[in-house]
Amino acid sequence: MKEVDIDISNHTSDLIDNKILRQSDLVVTLCSDADENCPVIPPNVKKEHWGFDDPAGKSWSEFQRVRDEIGQKIKQFYDN
User: Fold this and answer.
1) Do residues 52 and 31 touch, judged by C-beta distance below 8 A?
2) What tens digit of pLDDT does each residue of 3-59 get?
3) Which range of residues forms the domain containing residue 8?
């Protein structure tokens, strides 16, 4: 991520907080496990699944490819 000027050195993977979830307009899952095991979402919150390959255990170039795909999807979402 440093290659694209994003600092994730303090990043942790955490479960979503229910208070934040209730205040959200949209929840986006990025992997099948999160999509299938996402907590119960309140009916007023829209849920979308943007499926991406999981690069865990694969080459560095695979991480870069998935990172770039996620970036493109976020840009498309923002532009629309």
Assistant:
1) yes
2) 889 898 998 887 788 888 889 999 898 888 877 877 778 888 998 999 999 898 999
3) 2-79
Residues 1 and 52: their CA atoms lie apart, in Å, by: 17
Which residues have C-beta within 8 Å of that of residue 32, sequence separation ≥ 6? 51
Place of tokens 């999807």: 73
Residue with tokens 């000027």: 5
CB 38 within 8 A of CB 52: no
Q: For residue 69, what is the domain's CATH number?
A: 3.40.50.2300
What are the φ/ψ torsions at residue 46 (nearest 5 degrees)?
-80, 140
How many structural domains comprise the chain? 1
